[in-house]
Design goal:
Distance between the termini: 10 Å
Number of strands: 6
Shape: elongated
Order of helices and strands: HEEEHEEE
Largest sheet: 6 strands, mixed
């Protein structure tokens, strides 16, 4: 599996899970798309690889590498809804990823939620879900 394949699997997992949730009317965008900022809040989904480690010593084409990364979902809730809305949405993100395997090789583990800040319009939290996949070279 490549980073692009893992990213596409993560995007599909999010889109499917978010679309099936009671929050499906809240728009989102992936990091490679133009802004979809909505009046009632919005989310931005990004994927970052964090580490790569060779697991086996073998001939070319048979070497196995373990890749780890983080799925970052920035959550922007209207300031007048504050922590309640953003925490509910963050819990839905946890439900989508935490402890799930998907996309023929991506496994997501624990998820954490951090308050980032607020401005005159948005209450912002960051949901981070850690994942791994394997590559053979």
């Amino acid at each position: 599996m490549t980073l692009n394949e893992a990213t596409e699997a993560i995007y599909l997992q999010f889109a499917t899970g978010w679309g099936a949730s009671s929050y499906s009317a809240i728009p989102y965008r992936f990091e490679n798309e133009s802004n979809v900022e909505g009046e009632s809040g919005w989310l931005r989904v990004s994927v970052r690889e964090l580490d790569s480690r060779q697991e086996t010593m073998s001939s070319p084409g048979e070497r196995r590498f373990r890749r780890t990364g983080v799925i970052q979902v920035q959550i922007f809730a209207p300031i007048d809804q504050g922590a309640k809305a953003s925490n509910l949405w963050a819990e839905q993100v946890r439900t989508i990823f935490e402890g799930e395997s998907f996309g023929s090789g991506v496994t997501a583990y624990s998820s954490s939620v951090r308050f980032i800040g607020a401005d005159e319009r948005w209450h912002n939290v960051l949901s981070e879900s850690f994942f791994e996949y394997h590559s053979t070279k």
